[in-house]
Amino acid sequence: MNIILFLLIGALAGWLAGNFMKGGGFGVVGNIVVGVLGAVVGGTVFSAVGVAAGGIVGSLVVSTIGAILLLYIVGFIKRL
């Protein structure tokens, strides 16, 4: 059950980040990939700062912020 919740949060975080960054989503698989990678990025950044997020809402916020950072970095690299 935890893996399903993890994938659902990843998909929602990827979709939110895609909409926030003027995307519009990347399809179900793309949203999951962006959200899961965003969770890794967000978790790394937040743990380095010393902030812990708990629960489903906290995980969604951290994943979405991480996915936004990931999309920003990818967009920046593509412009170079």
From TrEMBL:
Transmembrane segments: 28-49, 56-77
InterPro entries for this protein: Transgly_assoc
Pfam families linked to this entry: Transgly_assoc (PF04226)
Membrane protein topology class: Multi-pass membrane protein
Keywords per UniProt: Cell membrane, Membrane, Transmembrane, Transmembrane helix
Localization terms from the record: Cell membrane
GO cellular component term, pick one: plasma membrane
Superkingdom per UniProt: Bacteria
Family: Belongs to the UPF0410 family.
Listed name of the protein: GlsB/YeaQ/YmgE family stress response membrane protein
Record organism: Vibrio ezurae NBRC 102218
